Amino acid sequence: MLNEKLSVPIAILVLAMLFSYNNIYALPKYIGIFALIVLVSLFAKKIAGYFREIKVTEEIWDFRRYGLPERKKFKSPVPIGIFLPAVLLFFTYGALKWLAVTQTNFEAKISKKIKKTKWSLAEVGDFDIALICFAGILSSIFLALISFGFSREISLLSILYAFFNLVPIGKLDGTRLLFSSKIIYFIAVLVLAAASVILALLQI
Q: Global pTM?
């Protein structure tokens, strides 16, 4: 699949086009908004990864396996992060905009790998994955709260971005978080719900 340097700009463009498909002149504005949202989340994950000695990269969400048997898979990964938002936008006439378009990849740095645990070399653990994904979700929620005063649109889109990335399907952060730590996933859902209520009350 595409590397991070290509995946992140493509993700930003896909998200921006979802909200400017009927007004091309709004495209630059949404590119700016989603560049902020996506990069804040990615930066938070990379910081968390730095402290856990893990290299964090972002790629377009993809899938290869389409059935339970091992043989039922495509030869090459399908970039569902590009196709799903477009398909849903088309069939719902713009009513449903899917904001989760990237997946997070984790790789233990050499400094982490050489640290032996009791049984084996240290690798990327469930707790590492949970903390990194949680950092990305929290950063989007935090951005939503602090941006409410100067841009309610950024605030709303940040909350939506966090919500869609918490959906536990495929290789999204929600899936990684849920299967790595149900407790942290539950905390993330509660924090998102609390932030949504606060923002809703502020708009009254």
A: 0.89
